[in-house]
Amino acid sequence: MEHLHLFDRLGTAGHLRLPEADSAFGDLPWNRHPDFQGVELKHLVTGRETGGQFSCHLVRIAPGKAIGIHAHPTQTELHEVAAGSGVCLSGGARLVYEPGVVSILPKGEPHQVEAGPEGLRLLAKFIPALL
Fold first, then answer.
1. Taking burial as the number of CB atoms within 10 A of a residue's CB, which of 3, 69, 86, 88 is the most buried?
2. Which residues make Cβ contacts (< 8 Å) with residue 105, sequence separation at least 6?
3. What is the pLDDT of residue 5?
4. What is the pLDDT of residues 91-111, one digit of tens each?
5. Is 27 left (phi over 0), alpha (psi -120 to 50) or beta?
6. Torsion sign (Cα): 57, 104, 69, 37
7. Which residues, in sequence order, are bridge partners of residue 77?
8. Whose CA is closest to 125, among 61, 63, 72?
9. What pTM did the predictor assign?
10. Distance set, CA 117 to CA 41, 50, 59, 85, 86 (Å)
């Protein structure tokens, strides 16, 4: 298991450990994005666990696919690029995504994320919680 990338480790062997419970992320399903083909989400932490304060999600975008233009009217969004490559178009800027990049998308700011030829893996966090 040591050879797994952090993104994969979180998705298969990660846990949410709270004083009252321990939840295995491997038991959580991958969900197809309802609007964007080739995009899957795994909801690691939701508003249920945080009193609506924040949520955290693994995001897989297949090679050449995109999360099209959209905005979150009430959430600030943080992207942490874990693997792959791509670009985020936000605020009139073209942000190059590669492992180690972190970007902040202000609430209400229209943006889109496009995966490169090897796909893109993100941790996306929302304040307040998206779900």
1. 86
2. 72, 76, 77, 78, 79, 88, 90, 111
3. 80
4. 999 999 999 999 999 999 999
5. alpha
6. negative
7. 105, 126
8. 72
9. 0.93
10. 19, 35, 16, 8, 8
